[in-house]
Amino acid sequence: MGAIAISPKTRRAEIERDQCVECSLCFRGMSQEHLNPTLVRTVRTVLKWFRVRFDPEPDVCPTAAFDLEELTWPRIVRRAFSDVTATHESTGIHGRGTEEVKTNDLTGRVKRGEAGFVVEFGRPAVGVRFREINRMTTRLAAAGAQFQNMNPVTQLMTDPALGTLRPDLLDEKVLSAIVEFKTSVDRVEHFLDVVEAVAPHLDTVVSLGVAALCEADGSNPIEEVMERRGYPIIRGKTNLGLGRATNPALSAPVEVGVPA
Amino acid sequence: MTNTLHRFGASQDFKDDYIIFAMCTKGKNDIDSPARLRKFLEICARHKPVNMGDAKSGALFRPSRNLNPLAHWKRQDDVSPQEVIAGIKEPTTASAVFDNVQALRACLEEVKAADLGPSINIAALTDDTRTCSEEVGINRHAVEYSFGFIGNQTKLPEANTLSLMTMCGHGMIAGTFAQKMIDWVKTDRKTPSECSRYMARFCVCGIFNPVRAERLLCRMANRQPAER
Question: Which residues contact B72 (CB under 8 A, 6 or more apart)?
Answer without folding.
Answer: A56, A57, A60
